[in-house]
Amino acid sequence: QWMWLDLTQAEWSPALTAHLPKAAGGRGLAAEKFAFSGKDDPVYKGMLEAIREGGRESLKTPEADMPGFVNRSKGFGEFKYK
Fold it and tell me: pTM for this structure?
């Protein structure tokens, strides 16, 4: 689910904060065996960097409501009267 990832503020992603202990700034919702030990946890760091990379990649192809959008559909999906 995309709602688990925040591509603009990766460290706020619920996929990370849910599994991070409250003492480390997370929500501490996961079972202990799934929780990151803290922000220095190698798996946490790897996931954080992967989400950041996803954010950078997503900006390479802006959506219609973003600066830099280029319409590549060339008329596809448009209704035209004859």
Answer: 0.71
